[in-house]
Known about the structure:
Elements: H1 2-15, H2 22-49, H3 55-61, H4 64-74, H5 76-88, H6 100-126, H7 133-142, H8 164-170
Helix pairs in contact: 1-2, 2-3, 2-4, 2-5, 4-5, 6-8
Amino acid sequence: MVSAELLAAETALSHANPQTGKLDAQLALIFVCDAISLILSKLEGVFLDLGQDSKNIHDMLCSKDLMQLRKACTSSAALAAIGREVTASHVNIGQVDLDEAHCVARDSFRRFAADVVAPISQEIHRHDLTVPEALLQPMREMGVFGLSIPEHYGGSAPSDREDTLVMIVVT
């Protein structure tokens, strides 16, 4: 888990550059702050479980520099400000370069979400309703339930390799 968080944080930082935009960079920094805290907390727990001295990890977690960074990025005021910026912005954030097949899947499911899901989602959520057949059948037809099943078993996932990116794009 710790190595996955570290990899995700490194990836977020590597994609946060002037070309991706200010919002992407700010959101990446928020994620990295959370990841650092989570990683250090998990490591501190491992040290405690092993009966080892976790003072150095605790000191890093409570360091002045990390506390200042967390306050600047993840305080209620900072999160509210970035939330307002995201809401007011009319740009796509978190853009990732995709090949044509993944772009087609992304665009198809975006249209489906906007045209079919969005008009009824609030009603379903607020009244804790079961997902209606009006959503499930089109999702079946689009192949959403076979995305992780290899083609040789009747799904749409490649049989010779994993393609988790398509599941991420669709989600």
